[in-house]
Amino acid sequence: MPELRKDPVIKRWVIIATERAKRPHDFVRPKVEEKSTFCPFDYGNEHTTPPEVLAFRPADSSPNTPGWWVRVVPNKFGAVDPTLEPRRYGVGMFDAMEGFGFHEVIIETPDHNTHLALMDYKQVEEVVWAYWHRYTALANNTLIKYILIFKNHGRDAGASLQHPHSQLIALPIVPKRVQEELDGSLDYYNYKERCVFCDIIREETYRKERVVEENEDFIAIEPFAARFPCETWILPKRHANSFGSIVEKEVKSFAKILKNTLYRMWKALDNPPYNFMLHTAPTTGEGKEYYHWHLEIVPRLTNVAGFEWGSGFYINPMPPEEAAKYLRSVEIQ
Amino acid sequence: MPELRKDPVIKRWVIIATERAKRPHDFVRPKVEEKSTFCPFDYGNEHTTPPEVLAFRPADSSPNTPGWWVRVVPNKFGAVDPTLEPRRYGVGMFDAMEGFGFHEVIIETPDHNTHLALMDYKQVEEVVWAYWHRYTALANNTLIKYILIFKNHGRDAGASLQHPHSQLIALPIVPKRVQEELDGSLDYYNYKERCVFCDIIREETYRKERVVEENEDFIAIEPFAARFPCETWILPKRHANSFGSIVEKEVKSFAKILKNTLYRMWKALDNPPYNFMLHTAPTTGEGKEYYHWHLEIVPRLTNVAGFEWGSGFYINPMPPEEAAKYLRSVEIQ
Fold first, then answer.
1. CB within 8 A of A69, min separation 6: which ones?
2. Interfacial B residues in 205-224 facing A (CB < 8 Å)
3. Which residues constitute the domain of residue B198?
């Protein structure tokens, strides 16, 4: 049974994923890239995944058969388990919870060999719609407090399958980093009576030097205190605490700036491994006035010092102004 | 000029290290392992580093010549600069500070090809004494608030030179992770009137299942809410908020458990890359009753999911109880 455990000092919840537990020996040798020809996300292999929970497919096609263009399935080796209950209990002095939650995979395309950076805008829009549909469906579950939507691209960024996919984890707790953003933006709001993210957008639009791209509805910037080279945030210009509130016109603009930003990284950094994560308010609706949803993209580049990994302290060897200039200079095709 | 910059949302300070700035292009291709024969930390190359600030060497030998067994020098490509002043200023809505601080390298041995895990206890003690001497010297500087002592072992953990060395960064700010530990342990103290780390030591000693090793003065455990497989903490049994208060007998015990723990990882995980960081109170003396210094060791293993890197949210595929059992089973030579 997977378990959620809370650090007694800094109050950070961690998933101890027993269902996908690896034996210590599994970590001894770097895993060799497997050139397996079988992919559970390809057309014709729909029966090898758990049954789909959402698919965009022709009206005359049957579930779990080919023909779809975006498909969402439960993760076969989920880190959390929807059949559990979010029951809390003590373990001596420690605090834990059953590993309740939903872990899903968004298969972004039937094409095994492409990438969000290279798809056409229409297909990226469809992926964003899939995020939105699953977000909205799971947000209705009152046991769920937070919905994490994220992507690992490339083996060095933690992707175990090459076929383009994103993931969604719905949890009965709010992740620490998000809680910190909520707390920090509330502090700012209490002092300034303004949303800190709205202020950042205004400041960056005026200064220009950290802007990578903008369109009518979104802006992509390198944050002022970037932790990593080419760390990029995409923010909606309209104040909204939740990704769930995105409207049709914004889905189009978001897909466009997302694809372009990933394309810039793909081109400028030679298809780097990267992670992105959608930061949005808890499903309880917290932060209406002061929080602002956004997407954070972190390429995992070599030559980046290592101790930040465990320490939470960062040395960034590339000023974000220089990174922005570099990414901006990429020609969009 | 290096700069300290503060994230306006979560108030995390980051070093933007312009002095060691890399051009965007440096990140494009994984750096090939350089089989350079020249090492600035070897005997005879003392003149290629900045002059030593501390060395354990025979009384009749001259500074910056061979003969030393531990040597500390300023980092030639320091992330911070001691000639600056910790002057604070605004950049529009943002907050920054000159990149003032000390960045030093502790060369742990003249032997290019060894490793803390394989040295004899006496040599590891000498390394700990070097930490202590530099800690104490820099703690006297009233502009310094925090002294970070850490080690990156292996290229995948961010080490750029193979020769065994640790690093020290003294800063005019307290890193966010440490501030969180201070805040969290104060909350616990306010509620329980006890140190949370002392309680953890008591609980783990009683339960045994997460203990890797203990001696008279120290205990090595896998934390209850471990973020990573084989993440290990070493804590002093005597309550003390600062590493600076360590006494001679404890230096011996600490060196012993540190070497043994690293040896266990070396043996069990086949010389994994790892990072360790000494967590100690700010030099201002905060946390006397409620904070407890300790060392956190994080091996960087493959097959560990990636999005934690940027999101602060962790899925650990190996229960700490299993990791402890595995590390415990290694025979110490």
1. A56, A57, A109, A110, A123, A126
2. 206-207, 223-224
3. 177-328
Nearest chain B Cα distance for residue A281, angstroms: 14
Same domain, A165 and A213: no
Sign of the torsion formed by the C-alpha atoms of B248, B250, B256 and B258 = negative
Give me the CATH number covering residue A167: 3.30.428.10
Please report the residues numbered 77 through 106 in chain B whose beta carbons come closer than 8 angstroms to any beta carbon of chain A. 79, 91-94
Residue B27: the pLDDT is 67
| pLDDT for residue A1 | 86
Sign (positive/negative) of CA torsion B188, B192, B196, B200? negative
Residues β-bridged to residue B71: B55, B107
Contact (Cβ atoms closer than 8 angstroms) between residue A185 and residue B11: no
Render pLDDT for A128-163 as a digit per residue (tens, 0 to 9): 999 999 999 999 999 999 999 999 998 878 888 899
Q: Do A158 and B306 touch (CB under 8 A)?
A: yes
Task: Assess whether B165 carries a catalytic annotation.
Answer: yes
Q: Which of A25, A91, A309 should one mutate to test binding to chain B, selecting the residue with the greatest count of B CBs within 10 A? A: A309
The answer as to whether A245 is a domain residue is yes
Residue A256 structure tokens: 């466009």
Tell me the pairing of strands B88-91 and B94-98.
antiparallel
Among residues B163, B165, B239, B292, the one annotated as catalytic is B165
Amino acid B67: pLDDT: 97
A298 — contact with chain B (CB < 8 Å)? yes
Which of the two residues, B298 and A36, has the higher pLDDT score?
Answer: B298
> Cβ of A303 and B26 within 8 Å?
yes
Tell me: do A124 and A107 sit in the same domain.
Answer: yes
Minimum-distance CB partner of A298 among B14, B230, B309: B309
C-beta neighbour count of A266 within 10 angstroms: 20
Asked if residue B333 belongs to a domain, the reply is no
Contacts 24+ apart (CB under 8 A), B184-192: B184/A8, B184/A9, B184/A10, B184/A11, B185/A9, B185/B287, B185/B290, B185/B291, B185/B292, B186/B287, B186/B290, B186/B291, B188/A8, B188/A9, B188/B290, B189/B289, B189/B290
Is A225 close to B8, i.e. CB distance below 8 A? yes
For residue A63, give how far its alpha carbon lies from the nearest alpha carbon of chain B (Å).
Answer: 30
Q: What is the pLDDT of residues B127-161, one digit of tens each?
A: 999 999 999 999 999 999 999 999 999 887 888 88
Same domain (yes/no): B104, B195: no
With CB atoms and an 8 Å threshold, state whether B199 touches A320. Answer: no
- Judge if B272 and B157 occupy the same domain: no
Closest approach of B308 to chain A, Cα-based (Å): 9
Cβ within 8 Å of residue B63, ≥6 positions away: B51, B52, B55, B57
Q: How many C-beta atoms lie closer than 10 Å to residue A257's C-beta? A: 23
- Report d(CA A246, CA A125) in Å as an integer: 12
Structural domain contains residue B28: no
**Which amino acid type is present at position B188?**
Y
For A311, the closest of B21, B150, B314 (CB atoms) is: B150
Which residue out of A103, A163, A165, A279 is catalytically annotated?
A165
User: Do A175 and B199 count as a contact with CB atoms less than 8 A apart?
Assistant: no
Do A168 and A213 fall into the same domain? no
Is B223's CB within 8 Å of A148's CB?
no
Interface predicted TM-score (ipTM): 0.91
H/E element holding A308?
A: helix A308-311
Which pLDDT tens digit goes with each residue over B246-268? 999 999 999 999 999 999 999 99
How high is the pLDDT of residue A21?
Answer: 62
